Amino acid sequence: MYFNFVKEQSEVAKMKIGFVGAGRVGSTIAFTCLQQLDVEEIALVDIMENLAIGEAMDLAHAAAGLGKYPEIVGGSDYSILEGSDIVVVTAGSARKPGMSRLDLAMKNAGIIKDVARKIMESSPESKILVITNPVDLMTYVMWKESGKSRNEVFGMGNMLDSMRLKRTLHELGVKNINKAWILGEHGDSMFISRTLIDAENVPELEKVLSEVRFVAAEVIKRKGATFYGPAIAAYRMINAVLNNTKEEMPASVILKGEFGFSDVSVGVPAIIGKNGVEKIVEYPLDPQDMENLRNSVKLLKERLKELGY
Ligand SMILES: NC(=O)c1ccc[n+]([C@@H]2O[C@H](COP(=O)([O-])OP(=O)(O)OC[C@H]3O[C@@H](n4cnc5c(N)ncnc54)[C@H](O)[C@@H]3O)[C@@H](O)[C@H]2O)c1
Ligand SMILES: O=C(O)C[C@H](O)C(=O)O
């Protein structure tokens, strides 16, 4: 019995997280996952090879302080991603103060197209979590260019927006915030789902929405970038895949008829598990929510056309 137990244990799949992009967000996500998850392997790819190697070395030292000794490698060669359960993509440019996320679209689409091809050459079985902005457009580009099934490619945007919404509601004295989701574009057309909000004494939401929509720019103006909030949001999604939690959360996912829309990636409620997007949850959204979602889809499709999709 003991031998069988050991044998079974040795067959337990190793949890490996790959990263393409070892910059502020990628490295902070890796640092977060190192602390929160029992990951056996982390691989960080970046065009700045020394950055990726340096981050891997620093992360390995941090792990030792936690009594953890995962294999952590960095470099510019995509072959180190082989066997990743999930690849987290933050490769690309970040916006500067005064820019919108959409201003990054043309440049980052070219990067994501190349990254998609290289991920499929090195780790074709991985789920892909896209973070690079504008994330809804980059998730679509990743899906199209990788050729993967739509459940295996998804983006993190509204998860972060929803965390910001919860904080803003808390500061306004809202209690028992069971569900407070931002849906739609991870951008200026994002909206608070009034259909799905579940909390006590919810205030008028117009001002709250404006705060959430533009708070990232305020952070960027002061510290140059956002990465702690994004890292926790990304960790929540990575954890759902690696531990098959089947947690329901807002995610940028490829629609094929859901909510009446197709051929676009946009933030909607989804169940995330070992298969990636396990299910898109088609709640009967009220007319205002549907109008807002339609507005996001229209904007995103116009920008996809500009990118040649
Ligand atoms: N979806 C979200 O909620 C969210 C949150 C925060 C940041 N972001 C986005 O994530 C991206 C990264 O942000 P950051 O602050 O980490 O930027 P950063 O500049 O610190 O890191 C980006 C990294 O990508 C690397 N890179 C560039 N082109 C590459 C390529 N072709 N292959 C591999 N690596 C490449 C760069 O060398 C750099 O290290 C930006 O687009 C930013 O807007 C999205
Ligand atoms: O706003 C940005 O440019 C980064 C990210 O999308 C965020 O919302 O923090």
UniProtKB/TrEMBL annotation:
Swiss-Prot/TrEMBL catalytic activity: (S)-malate + NAD(+) = oxaloacetate + NADH + H(+)
EC top class, as a word: oxidoreductase
Family of this protein: Belongs to the LDH/MDH superfamily.
Record's keyword terms, sorted: NAD, Oxidoreductase, Tricarboxylic acid cycle
PROSITE patterns: L_LDH
Domain called Lactate/malate dehydrogenase N-terminal: residue spans: 15-155
Active site: 186
EC number(s) given by UniProt: 1.1.1.37
GO terms (BP aspect): lactate metabolic process; tricarboxylic acid cycle
Organism: Thermococcus sibiricus (strain DSM 12597 / MM 739)
List of residues binding substrate: 95, 101, 133, 164
A molecular-function term among this protein's GO annotations: L-malate dehydrogenase (NAD+) activity
Protein name: Malate dehydrogenase
